[in-house]
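Here we describe the complex-level prediction in full. Unlike the single-chain runs in Section 2.1, the two entities below were treated as one system.
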Amino acid sequence: MISNGGPDMTDDRRHDAFFVITSNNNGLTKPSTISPLLCISTFRMSAIILTQHTPTRPKPTRMSTKQLTPQLRTTERTPLLSASPTHGGHIRTVPLKESLSTTRFITICIGIFSANFVFAFQTTSMPTLMTGISSGYGHAELGSYLGSVFTLANTAGMSTSQFSSLRIRSEGTTDE
Amino acid sequence: MESLGRKVAMLTAGLLYGLGTILCATSGSMYHLIAARAVAGVSHSLDSLHP
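The structure predicted for the assembly as a whole is:
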């Protein structure tokens, strides 16, 4: 479902792969998820978006397959990804740098940076402080549980979510 | 996560993580603190999933 590029993709194609949309079972399209590619291409996107002088950015418009069909009749100079409307089952849409406003982009960046900072800070501070905290509560022998319980609960939550997602997908497949 | 939707799942994860952090801060015993850390761990698992 994530439409990100593989490691063998070039830089431009990896950048374009972030802007594809996926098709669901009803034939409708929806934007792809915020993938880790956003973290990877954050600085490049910021350079592209912030340097563009576009006072009024156009609203995002989805291009249908019929609209993209003339692009199939291109020459060899045209990049492969832009010439194929269906690239691995995905349909291309307007590039994100034209549909995403600067305010929204900065908001997304702040959210990603703050979330990464909070998690990295607690990952660093807990091993340092857990002995003092557990000693303060009078149970120094339970200090290691502060880290292990977090990791175990994290793993259990991930497994539960993934199994539920797989079950939903399998039910949708059998209904078809 | 697919049944809830991406936005609802991430907002729920953020709220749960905040709740777990508050429970950690207000814990009165070691077992309370460990349970609060478990709540924070579950919420982080929801936040770190990308379908």
